[in-house]
Amino acid sequence: ATLVGDTIAEETHSVKISIRFMCGLFRNKCCVDTVGKTNIIGWNEVTTPYSEPIECTAGKDVSNQNCDHADGGWCGVHITQYQRNQGPGLNTENYRFVVLLYDSDQELIGQLDLLSIPSGQTHQFGSPLPYTFGVTAPNLDADAVYMTYNGQNWGSNNQDHHCSFGAYDSGKREGDCGSTC
């Protein structure tokens, strides 16, 4: 978009504000999944980070309805992690992740694409599971990616969670882990 009075296309400025809710009415809760504000000045994208925790509020009582749910037991997660300044999309100065969350029946129950997380910070997101799932970006490329769910905390190098992560290849690494859910 060009602001009124702009005469030079390179000086355009637009603002994108996005709020994404994960509202499968799981366990009677509806959670804010992501909140972001992006300023685009010229052709440069500047993201204003949102650092407040995920906010969950009680939803209407759905205990007698057939709502989305996930089968508990042993759940899985597949993560693709891009190194800084690598991979597709914008906002490459941070580590970026594609996160696929599966329930115990290996049904896909949560997905985030090109999630941008600054080093050492954690992003929590909701799914039909009763608690949020967290991903913590490493400080350095060689560090483990950390995950959290319902008081569990483990790294991508943790064998108790059956983690198997490959080495970086073409600017990204991929792996799988599991946890009780």
Summarize the structure.
By secondary structure, this protein is mostly beta strands. Residues 1-6, 20-34 and 45-67 have low confidence and may be disordered. It contains no helices and 13 strands.
What would your notes on this structure say?
The structure is a single chain. By secondary structure, the protein is mainly beta. The chain has no helices and 13 strands. The strands form three sheets. It has a five-stranded antiparallel sheet with strand order 7-6-5-13-12, with no helix packed on it. Strands 1, 2, 3 and 4 form a four-stranded antiparallel sheet that branches. The chain is globular, with a radius of gyration of 18 Å. The termini are far apart.
The percent range for helix content is under 10%
The number of E-state strands comes to 13
Unreliably modeled segments? 1-6, 20-34, 45-67
Major sheet summary line: 5 strands, antiparallel
Write the layout of secondary structure elements.
Layout: E1 13-26, E2 29-41, E3 44-48, E4 56-58, E5 74-82, E6 95-102, E7 108-117, E8 122-125, E9 133-136, E10 146-149, E11 152-155, E12 164-165, E13 172-180
Antiparallel strand pairs: 1-2, 2-3, 2-4, 5-6, 5-13, 6-7, 8-9, 9-10, 10-11, 12-13
Tags for this model:
disordered N terminus; 4-stranded antiparallel β-sheet; single chain; mainly beta; globular; 13 strands; 181 residues; 5-stranded antiparallel β-sheet
